[in-house]
Write a structure and sequence with these properties.
single chain, 220 residues, alpha/beta, DNA polymerase, domain 1, 2 domains, six-stranded parallel sheet, 10 helices, 10% strand, globular
Length: 220
């Protein structure tokens, strides 16, 4: 599984850090505070979506007068409050990063989260120093599902995109990495792998632990 691979590029939320349920609860709570009922289905559609797409989803669902900026402010406050209580690392992350580091693979993060929030969260859970570079939403003109975040990560690593594995949990993230020409490993979090998304993936794995066992221990 690691043949012809020189680097690994990870999404952050939902792959490295178990934040997607926090975002979902925050979105539902923020909408309720404004007098709107957000469905789980709508929240799931917003996973991995850039801000302009998220804004369009909200106004399509609740009308053109929906206070998107206030919703975002409330949601941000809810998320930050939740992060002060817990910021758990996803299972298998440390062991996989240690294995990649020991084997000499380049390592990067390509996230839709902006700076300084993204590097701050990676530092808070002790992951920042495992990576050679962190590409945030501020570093690209177009976010996921466009390929720019993954292309930027590959360029910073000095590795051809086709020689990178990309680890993603969201549909837009898979689309982004696939469009960049990377081999995509999807580790589903809140969203299952649909037939369309599965066709873009090199593999769909239950966890990062499952990937590590298949990629490293099976080769020993």
């Amino acid at each position: 599984m690691l043949n012809d691979i020189d680097a690994a590029v990870f999404d952050m939320d939902g792959v490295l850090i178990d934040t997607e349920p926090l975002y979902q609860r925050a979105e539902i709570a923020a909408a309720a505070e404004l007098g709107f009922e957000m469905s789980v289905a709508l929240s799931e559609r917003m996973i991995g979506a850039p801000h302009d797409v998220g804004r369009a989803l909200l106004t399509d669902a609740f009308g053109a007068n929906f206070p998107v900026d206030e919703f975002n402010r409330l949601c941000h406050a809810e998320v930050e409050a939740a992060f002060r209580e817990t910021l758990p690392v996803k299972p298998g992350v440390i062991d996989l990063l240690e294995a990649l580091k020991a084997s000499g693979f380049g390592r990067a993060v390509a996230t839709s989260t902006a700076s300084p929030a993204a590097p701050d969260r990676l530092r808070a859970v002790g992951l920042f120093d495992y990576f050679d570079t962190v590409v945030t939403r501020n570093d690209v003109s177009r976010g996921k599902p466009h390929p720019d975040p993954f292309l930027t990560a590959a360029a910073r690593l000095g590795v051809e995109p086709g020689r990178c594995l990309a680890f993603e949990d969201s549909h837009n993230g898979v689309r982004s990495a696939h469009a960049a020409g990377m081999r995509v490993i999807m580790v589903p979090d809140l969203l299952p792998a649909t037939p369309e998304i599965r066709a873009m993936c090199h593999a769909v794995m239950d966890s990062l632990t499952a990937f590590r066992l298949a990629a490293f221990e099976a080769a020993e």
